[in-house]
Amino acid sequence: MARRGTLRIYLGAAPGVGKTYAMLSEAHRRAERGTDIVVGLVETYDRPRTEALLRGLETVPRRPATPPGGGRGEMDTEAVLRRAPAVVCVDELAHTNAPGSRHDKRWRDIDTLLDAGIDVISTVNIQHLESLADVVTAITGVRQRETVPDAVVRRADQIELVDMTPEALRRRMAHGNIYAPDKVDAALSHYFRPGNLTALRELALLWTADRVDAYLQRYRTEQGIRSTWYARERIVVALTGGPEGATLIRRAARMAAKSSGGEILAVHVSRAARLTAVSPRELAGQRTLVEQLGGTFHHVIGDDIPSALLDFARGVNANQIVLGSSRRKTWQHALGPGVGSSVARDSGPDLDVHIVTHDEVARGRGLPSARGARLGRSRTLAGWLIGLAGPPLLTVLLAAPPQPLAGFASDVLLFLSMTVLAALIGGFYPGLVSAALATVLLDYFFTEPLHHWGVGSGHDVITVVIFFAIALAVASVVDLSAQRTQQAARLRAESETLTVLAGSVLRGEDTLRALLGRARETFGMDCAALLERDHDGGRWRCVGSVSAIADNPRPLLRPQDADVDVPVGEHTMLVLSGRVLPAEDRRVLSAFAAHAATILDRQRLLTEAARAHKLAEGNRIRTALLAAVSHDLRTPLAAIKASVSSLRSDDVEWSEADRAGLLESIEDGADRLDQLVGNLLDMSRLHTGTVRPLIRRTALDEVVLRALGGVAPDVVTLDIPESLPWVAADPGLLERSVANVVENAVKYRPAHTRVLVRGSALGNQVELRVVDRGPGVPDADKGRIFEPFQRHGDIPRGNGVGLGLAVARGFTEAMGGTLDAEDTPGGGMTMVLTLPADTPDAVPDSRPSEQGEQGGAHAPGARGR
Predict the structure, then answer these.
(1) Is pTM, for the whole model, over 0.70?
(2) CA atoms within 13 A on the CB side of 14
(3) pLDDT digit string (tens) for 286-314?
(4) Peptide bond into 775 cis (omega under 30)
(5) Is 161 left (phi over 0), alpha (psi -120 to 50) or beta?
(6) Given CA atoms 856, 860, 862, 864 in this order, what sign does their dihedral have?
(7) Helices marked H in 649-726 — which ranges?
């Protein structure tokens, strides 16, 4: 199998920091070492220093632009594959290719090169990462139109941050090293403000730090390093599920805030034997709080809680642990050290342990909310020790010479007390053994005749029998009570788990991944998945899975791969791996399985419903189109046919005025047909999703002038300042939108009034207002006027089919803008068309509009209604 190429990415915080310069410098270094390296595509943006670096490097010619003259063209991936160099430089990883390219995104072209064994060097800005697009928009006010999935960048073999301070970048901008001089002032006052650049730089540094941290974790795992390396402040918060958890989480958040880049990891350790040891509701609330504060929640399994906590902290390379002060009462400390003391003792010099006080200190833990009181291993061992050693020690004490310390009745009561104590602590069997041993010792050492087997007095026989019966009864009652308590605790844990599960349904938490994650954590498993097949004997496929292990080496693809499998119906199965569950746990697991199948069915039903809705909407549009064609097309056709027939008639001698009137009628009918067909086609394209705008820098005043080409100059007043910013739009679609909106306003304006078309800038947006003094539209109807085939008021059918505003809004929204209706002060209607203003980082795309240059739009002035 051919080797896959390696990917190296230069990451920057903003345009102009020097990513392309660094990439080309690396290309020269490799070329000097004899590496076969070529330039697949580099965008210089007329920067002299970048262009100078291209000299001396072999460059693969670009693929010709489509259509000719529509830009510089895209990378010729096929030519690079034929050339087959060792390394290729490809600029702008997140770039969107022009229509007709091999792939829609440039990173897909790079994947093709990597699959062919070619090493790739590329560049990307932090604002183009998919996960940060919304954050960057909130910071800069500029929406990123070109993004790349984070996973593509994270898969890179090397990521190098190209960093520059905001002040240095602004100086570079002011010197004209990034943009042309006429754009410098606008850039410095908008996108390249110091605050924007500082925030983007912080995003880039933090994202790169996370990537470096992933490399560090992988290296530590591969090398088996367990000691803490102080590369980053990581604070582990130990949660018991008790009420003090929120206090600990907030305290850890304050500690993390003091150290820039600090990370919070909340962890709950539960024992491996049964369901989680605390209320799922409590942990769910604490988990939500951790995530709100920017931390992560983890659930680990371990019988020795201090050891499990320390193992987790060292595994994530943490350097601080936050625990709450013990809730045990004072006398309980005599039973042994608590978790906090054990963690502090065994933490070593690489972990700082913080014991935080809270309101629940020394109030007692009480019964665990989901586990209840049950006999653990230490308690059972103590019961056996008392049952086996207690009677002999008591015998030595009571029978020591020179004479017994008490009478026979007192001896029996003392032995009975010892047996009861063994039963209370250890349960039935330690109590039973203690009772049998005490009976033998009473018979031999304390009943007449002494030191002989057998009881001489009838009263002593009755006493010994009653003693044994009472001891046996007490042991039975204690053991039964422990069993009932354990059963009640388990049922309570199950009921609370099912309650949380049912609550998630009511709250609408219906994602399959969330449910599988809850099942995995509840039962302390490593991985959970839902498998499905089409028929008996068919191949299983995984429809959803979660894992507690990154890069899980044991994916669940078949029921045979799992430790636990629960069938749901005939062809669906919930599977888990990690350990074999006891039979009693499968009851609750079956509820999870049924809910998982329900979620899967619901998701599919929603998908089918959406598909059905789309089909129904398409049918509605087609029905309306047919209705429109049946009447509105027939009317102008009838007028054209009548006029043509009249002109062709030999029976009538038409005057020049009559002939001109008939020709004008034919022209009007043809215009109406052209307008109608154009809008019908546009609406069809909108509903089939085939409208793909080509966004580029556009002068709004030029587009508006073309849109008004078919409108009489005496009915429109134009007010668009020359200082208005450019907009990021498709000129062809924008012209159609403006033309339809203006034509609608002209249609409804009162006679002898003019329609006002005014442009203005508002923040990072540009507004175009089309104002008329017509009758206006009630608020209840403002939304409906943008729906297809809707006409307000008593408008004759011959005046259009009600598609103009629907097409205008559809085109505007396709370009990332909005079109809304407002009341005009003093009466009338104002249409507000809003588009994003162009910014320096939105590189001008000189390619012509797909609609405007390739026949998608009508010529200026031909606007359909």
Answers:
(1) no
(2) 33
(3) 888 888 887 888 877 666 788 888 888 88
(4) no
(5) beta
(6) positive
(7) 656-688, 700-707
